[in-house]
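Tutorial, part two.
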Amino acid sequence: MREKSTTLYIGPQHPGITGNMMVKLQVEGDTIVKAETHVGYLHRGFEKLMERRNWLQSFTIVCRICVPEPDPNEENYSRAVEEIEGREVPERAKYIRVMTLELARIATYLLWYGGQSGSAGLLTMGQWSVGDRNYILDLFEDLTGGRVYHMYIWPGGVRRDLPEGFKEKALRTMDYLEKRLDDYDKLLFENSIFQKRAKGVGIIDKNKAIEWGVVGPPLRGCGIQSDVRKDDPYEVYDKLDFEVPAMEGGDVWTRALVRRFEIRQSINLVRQVLDKMPGGEYYNKIPNPHKWTIPAGDAFVKTESARGEFGYYMVSDGGNKPRRVHVKGPAYVHGITLLENLLVGENVADVSFIMNSLGTCPPEIER
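Running the prediction step on this input gives:
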């Protein structure tokens, strides 16, 4: 006998939801038979706002598109402007940009630890990792003046050079975090509760992952070594030594392991950047922002964010502001197409657990 279907609404305030979104579920007993994502609780029209501001003013808007990891937005916006205009970026600025992006990746993954473990009831892990994330935010505060929104990577380079003593402080922080990874392993990855909750849950079929356009850790968790930093290097990633971690399985467990390995990888990349960073200028000065015009043209650039491939398409008509900006973030596929399909057949208790494993950022969807 078929059980009666019940409608459940999770979010947007539910703590298991990754941001301002809601998932409408049809359940029979505790099994999900249909899932529907609803966004729009944080719609700010970022793309249209950029089209109404001059080239420099717009770079202060883009960081809001993903609060946990704003820096890839600044990177994409700046590189798109630079590519259309043909503006050169000093070599030192490229190294600083990569360092900033990798610090942002570490901070994002430490925040992810909290959401993923909290969804399994392992709240201590989140207290540890979010507390350790503050050490990265301290570095950002020293570097940019801001802890979350940085507005640091801008057209022509970066807003300021490394402050005195920053390199030593950053290296000490990397050493500390690397030691903490062993504690994280004992508390989370060696925990039988987390293993039972994560293994075999939210499995992504490898062929479907390619068909749907899945990127980042969810794709690498299917065993596919895809990473923009390797496949289409930007800034100075082609001068750094690193490998792309990938694991077969496609479930929450493998996606968690991929992120775990990438934290260590990012720590090593920060060390390499600080070791190889040249001297010289950090900024190729732009003209008066109120009179600055960009030649007509267009550009598409992309970075590897903590959530995966993240792109910007920008068009200039020769004026003092963008004619068109389109943001292509991984959250659209991960938070709608992928999530709605993965939840079907799963237990209602695993909704937030699966969602956190995909790395969704709702403002990327409602731009």
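The chain has twelve helices and eight strands. In part three we will examine how such features are distributed along the chain.
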